[in-house]
Amino acid sequence: MENILVLVHTNEGGILPRAALETVAAARALGGEITIAVFGEGASASIGSIAVDGDAFAVPRYSTDAAAAEALVRHSGATLVLAPNTSRMARCLPGVAARLNGAVDSHAVAVARDGEAVTVTRWFYRQRIEGSLSREARPWFILLEPGACEPAEAAPAAAVETLAVDAPSRTTHEGYVSPETGEQTIRPDARLLFVAGAGWTKKQPDGAIHTDEAADLILGFVRSAQSSLGSSKSLVDQSGEGQAVLPFLTHLHQVGQTGSTPRHRKGLATCCHGEEPHVVGWRFINDRRAVNLDPNCGWARGKADVLYVGDSFEVMRELNRLLAE
Ligand SMILES: Cc1cc2nc3c(=O)[nH]c(=O)nc-3n(C[C@H](O)[C@H](O)[C@H](O)COP(=O)(O)OP(=O)(O)OC[C@H]3O[C@@H](n4cnc5c(N)ncnc54)[C@H](O)[C@@H]3O)c2cc1C
Q1: Quick one: which atom of ligand 1 is closest to the CA of 198?
Q2: Is 259 in the pocket of ligand 1 (CB under 6 A)?
Q3: Which of 173, 158, 143, 167 is closest to 53 using CA atoms?
Q4: CA–CA separation, 226 vs 171, rounded Å?
Q5: Fewer CB within 10 Å, N or C, the chain?
């Protein structure tokens, strides 16, 4: 009989990431009793019946996060530990699994139970092959990808046991730095992914390049729609090739075979051709739309649910006007 622990952390202000509630939902779907453990700022007032709280655990840091997670798992006696695949958990849990002589699997997209057997599903070979696996080693840590299931409703725990953990650390957390721009435009929890392609910096029908307007239109939309921003490889590569660039785009924004595979309900690609190595990164976008001048672009060949054949400058100008109203 598995002893299941859902291990989550809070973020700044004691807020639970959405992925934490998704992990609770995945654990409940396995059936049987689950224990919820929380560490981080305000953990004692969160959804867990066991917690590690205090200033030292408020900030993400390997040494303190690993100490908190280890104490919580040991205290619970868990054989199966489900945690959200946030950067904070992905950094500390492999170390914790090693300390406890257990095993860890990251990037799980589903967990299932058939009788006593638990299986994990994940993608291999850059999202091309889906496989299921099981392990005998215990405790088994499973990191569940954000967006893999709907979040659960969870209320603060009726009674919380707060563990005292001593975790001296030589690392000081000084704050967050966003790459280049100072503005966070990659938002994994956003409902919409807005993708910019190289067309934004190409010569337009009037024979000129309009990079400044492109930047205003893209950022204007991303800010007012609170969407996440993605890019094609061609566009982010341009900075290295000395061409006109959109300075707020980095390789972290790149979606595709050699980029990321984000998960959002909807996606809107603009000035992007929709070639296979790019579109493979759209695998987990449920509703795919694109705006392109070319009715024969890749999106028109079964890659998008809806293709608007039109000028992205005009479309986004109008969309931003409507959003501002
Ligand atoms: C091994 C390998 C790995 C790769 N990995 C990736 C990857 O991870 N991610 C990735 O993105 N690519 C990847 N690529 C590159 C990929 O094949 C394409 O070259 C790239 O995605 C093209 O980018 P793009 O669509 O932005 O640019 P382009 O192909 O230049 O397309 C620009 C589009 O903009 C349109 N356009 C121009 N102006 C307007 C306007 N005003 N309104 C509307 N539409 C307009 C044009 O019609 C055109 O379709 C990879 C390639 C290889 C070989």
Answers
A1: 26
A2: yes
A3: 167
A4: 33
A5: C
**Alpha carbon 227 to chain centroid, angstroms:** 13
Q: Which residue has the tokens 């029908």?
A: 205
**Ligand 1 atom nearest to 234, measured from its CA:** 23
Residue nearest to atom 19 of ligand 1 (CA): 234
Is the Cβ atom of 8 under 6 angstroms away from ligand 1? no
Residues 222-270 have pLDDT tens digits of: 999 999 999 999 999 986 666 668 888 989 999 999 999 998 999 999 9
CATH of domain 4-162: 3.40.50.620
Alpha helix ranges (H) inside the chain: 18-29, 62-76, 87-99, 211-225, 233-237, 276-279, 312-324
Domain 192-324: top CATH class: alpha beta
**Ligand 1 atom 26: the closest Cα is on which residue?**
197
- Cβ 316 under 6 angstroms from ligand 1: no
Same fold, 4-162 and 192-324: yes
What's at 119, amino acid-wise?
Answer: T
pTM for this model (two decimals) = 0.72
- Is the CB–ligand 1 distance for residue 314 below 6 Å? no
Would you list the domain boundaries of the chain?
A: 4-162, 192-324
Check pLDDT > 90 for residue 56: yes
The predicted-structure confidence for 70-127, as pLDDT tens digits, reads as follows 999 999 999 999 999 999 999 999 999 999 999 999 999 999 998 889 999 999 887 7
